[in-house]
Structure formats: C-alpha cells, structure tokens
Amino acid sequence: MFNITPAVKIRLLTFILAALLFLPAGTAFAHGVEIEYTERAAIEITARYDTGGPLAGAQVAVFAPGKPAEPWLTGVCDDFGKFYFVPDPQIQGLWEVQVRLAGHGGLIRIETGESSVAPQAAVGYSTAQKAMMAAAVIWGLVGTAFFFSRRRV
Amino acid sequence: MHIPDGIISASAAIGGYAATGGLTWLSLRRIKKQYDNARNEIPRAALLTAAFFVASLIHIPLPPVSVHLVLSGLIGIMLGWFSFPAILVGLLLQAVMFQHGGLTTLGINACLMGIPALLAYYIFRLRILFGREKPFPNGLFAFTASFAAIALGATMAAFLLVYATPAYFDAAAERQAVIALSLAHLPVALIEGVFTAMVVLFLLKVKPTLLDGDRP
Predict the structure, then answer these.
(1) Which helix (H) or strand (E) holds A104?
(2) Which B residues in the span 119-148 are in contact with A, Cβ-Cβ below 8 Å?
(3) Residue B101 in contact with residue B87, Cβ under 8 Å?
(4) What's residue A68's pLDDT?
C-alpha cells in the first residue's frame, strides 16, 4: 500500500501550511470594500389626500417612458406618503408614477431629459379657490331651483 | 367611494358608463310615468344635488383613512327616481371642479352611489305598511334606508377595487387597505342614518309632501 516516508510527510505538511496561509489572505481580500459615489437626480413623490393627510403605505408603480404595461419599479410610500426613486438616466421622456391605496390614488407624469422643466410639484387649488368654486356651483343649482319654481305668468 | 381616474381598467369604466346610461334612461322613463308635470320636481332635485355636491367636501377623519358624507340615502328617499340623474350631475360637477372621482369613472361612480339611492327609496317606501303618519316607522325606515345605502355602496366599491387591482400591485396589501376603508364607512353609515332620520322626522312635521315615498 502507500508508504509515507517522513520526507513526504514534511512536504505534505508544508503544502498544507502554505495553503492555510493563503486561504485567510484570500478571504480577507474578499472583505475589502470599495465605495464610490455618483450624484444622481432622484425624484421624490409625496402622496396626500386632498384633506392633507398622507397616503401612508400606499403602493407605487413607476412606468418607464413608452412602456405603460409593465412597471419599471414598484414600491410602497413611507409613513409620510413619500416615495423616492432614481430614474434611469439612459431612459429619457415621460415617466408615469401611479399611487394607489384602497382605491384612492392617481397618476403623476414626470418629464426627464434635457428639455425637461422642473417637475410639477402638485395639482390642486387653495382653500379660497375651492370655496369660491363650491359657491359658484351651489349658486348654479340654487338658481336652477329658483328658475323652475318661479310663478308662471 | 369616489373612484378616481386610472384606478380601474378601461373595460370596467366602459361597463360603468353602459350601466349608467341604462339606469338614466330607466329613471327618466319612470319619472315621465310617475309625475304629471316633472318640471315641478326640478327645484327639489337641484337643491338636493347641491347638498350632495357639498356633502362630499365635508371630510370626517377616521385614522388611518379619511371618509366623507355621501347622502345617497337621503337623496334616494327625497327624490325617488330623480335621485339617479341628480347624483350623476353632482358627480360630474365634483369630478370637473375638484377632481373628486374622475371623468372616466363617472359611470362607475354613478352606479356606486345611484343604485344604493334607489335601494334607499324602496326601503323607505316599506314604512307605508306600518302607517305613514307615525313617526317611529318613519324614523326607523329612514335610518335603515340610509344605512343600507352606504353599506351597499361601500361593499360594491370594495368588490370592484379588489377585483380591479392590477397584477403588478400587491393584491393582499390592497385587499387589506380596501377592507379597512370599507369598515371606516360603518360610522359614516351610522351618522348618515341618524341624520336622515332626523331630516325625515322634521319634514314629516313641517312638509310631509317633500318625502317622495308618499307618492303612489
């Protein structure tokens, strides 16, 4: 059978030791971390009810330009109704972000690229505008009521 | 209960419009049959449309959700078959002015609030069996009609929303949120039930002819 002489034993031991020496070195090398950073423009979405409360936990789907069927990214709004994402700079155009929470929600379109202007922050009216609009509608309906209840001559 | 644009599929939106078209036609036919001069009823319909329009602007915060009054029960009781067109006009104004609801979902929303209004009308008419002059059956049926209207609307909306969740959203999370919102309508149903009963009892004393259920 195999007859291991002392000389072979020593050589084998040396080999194993050398292997052990290299092994931790290799592992340690894998722990080395390189950190780089690149500045990118991220987009912050804030979803609120028209009463001002945040849509906490609302689901978000981001659609890349020209691909309205399959979402590019999905996620969830934080407790403040906020959601952040970094659009791929290679894909420029009209991004669509859909927010949904129990049937509440909507769609916002964000233009990216050189020609883009600062994205529209919000759509909405001030309280005074809302009050004015509501008053106009009510007056229209009350006016209709008066018109049809007038005395005919 | 107002479903905004972009939440449901195009086929559901078209289906909603078809159903609303059919129900509006049916309502107008019934109005023509029921009233000798339907023009006389327009002031009442216009004023209740105004009430409906304003009611949804009054929000009741029930964390984590925010709900608002709907008044579909009261409108159904007071307007009868006029309630469907009245709600349709109110919803159109809300969608155009405040983006509350949406133009593509106008048909669906009209069904979600108009059908419960018609249900309320018929529930309230049942009080005739118990004596239309007595306050107790009037109040009880007004409460029941209004409560049922909100409950039916919220249930229909919940089924629609769960059914129409796009595949890329987490269906389980959405279902949970929808259930939470539906349960939040329970206090709304109670508040509206009490409010409607109070209005009906007041009208019964002051001007009983305003309650459409009095008509044959």
Answers:
(1) strand A104-112
(2) none
(3) no
(4) 77
Q: Is the model's pLDDT at A2 over the cut of 80?
A: no
HSE, CB side, 13 Å, CA atoms: give it for residue A90: 0
Q: How far is B42 from chain A (nearest CA, A)?
A: 6
Least Cα distance to B93 among B106, B108, B112 occurs for: B106
pLDDT digits (tens, 9 = 90+) for B3-55: 888 778 888 889 999 999 999 999 999 999 888 888 888 888 999 999 999 88
DSSP A15-35: HHHHHHHHHHHHHHHHH----
What's the pTM value of the predicted model, to 2 decimals? 0.76
In this prediction the ipTM stands at 0.75
> Which residue has tokens 């004015």?
A132
- Closest residue in A to B164 (Cα) is A103
Phi, psi of B89 (to 5 degrees): -65, -45
**Which carries the bigger pLDDT value, residue B70 or residue A123?**
B70
> Best of A132, A137, A147 to disrupt the B interface by mutation (most B CBs within 10 Å)?
A137
